[in-house]
Amino acid sequence: MTGGIDEVAAAGLRNIAGMSPKVLAPGQVAVLVVEDDETIGRHLEIGLAGHGYAVSWVRTGGSALQMARTTAPSVALLDLGLPDVDGVEVARILRAEYPELLLIILTARSNEIDIIVGLDAGADDYLVKPFTLTVLLARLRAHLRRRSTSTSPATGPIVLGDLVLDVAARRCLLGGVEIALRPKEFELLVVLASRAGFAVSREQLMDQVWDENWFGSTKTLDVTMAALRKRLTQAADHPSSSQTPTITTLRRHGYRLEHPTGRGT
Asked: Which one of 20, 114, 132, 154 is at 20 to 30 Å from 241 when CA atoms are compared?
């Protein structure tokens, strides 16, 4: 489907050719709204702008990709039912090109499988329509506050066997090889690694990684944990990795990061 994405992106470039990037005030957050519904899109544009966000609103997936490449927003609010390409594919591309982007899906698709697919495509959050602007704003504040706190360089590297977490630089290395983690995957691993050998409840993980004011389902935690485990397992197969921590599920409680014991022990 790459060719199709390239085509809609080119169409999007033509659609936004006359638009210039917004000039941000100090501390202002740039938000890209991708919504084809005129009423919802206008409501989001006016509401977010009224709360101090710099908003760019587009109606297609192609326009979204080109606007993101033009303006490099901090936040993207993405509808899935777009007229030119499915929003899940747009989410995958945005996540691949902008690992630090705060990506929130806004959609009428409410089935659990749709939520899992959206989160697995790289979304940080999933909000089902209809929703209120008040809830959306609260989610945004929670995510942005969490990110601001987690990027503070107050903590030194965490070393567990071959695993090294450089918190200040937001880098994860296993056996000297860097692992590309999504923002929430990295933050989740930092919380577990900082308490290696101890049980961490689901509630504690949601509080510290998704903020104490989280309104959503803990399904987000499950999907993120599964992705983190997969990346660690794949990286552990590298010849230079012999002492890799593992994550144990504690049924009806949470998780524990086990201290590495080395292969064959």
From this structure: 154
Write down the pLDDT at residue 99. Answer: 83
CA 157 from centroid of its chain's CA atoms = 23
| Rg, Å, the chain Cα set | 19
Q: Alpha carbon 210 to chain centroid distance? A: 11
Domain ends where: 150, 171, 194? 150
What confidence tens digit (pLDDT) does each residue in 242-257 have?
Answer: 688 899 999 888 999 9
Rounded to 5 degrees, what are φ and ψ at 191? -65, -45
**Spatial contact of 251 and 202, defined as CB atoms under 8 Å apart:** no
Q: pLDDT tens for residues 15-25?
A: 444 445 566 77
φ/ψ of residue 162, rounded to 5: -85, -5
Structure tokens at 153: 């360089």
Domain total in the chain: 2
Band of the pLDDT at 210, cuts 50, 70, 90?
confident
Between CA 139 and CA 54 the distance in angstroms is: 17
Range of the domain at 179: 158-258
- The answer to whether residue 225 is domain-embedded is yes
Taking CA atoms, 209 is separated from 191, 205, 221, 223, in Å, by 8, 6, 9, 14
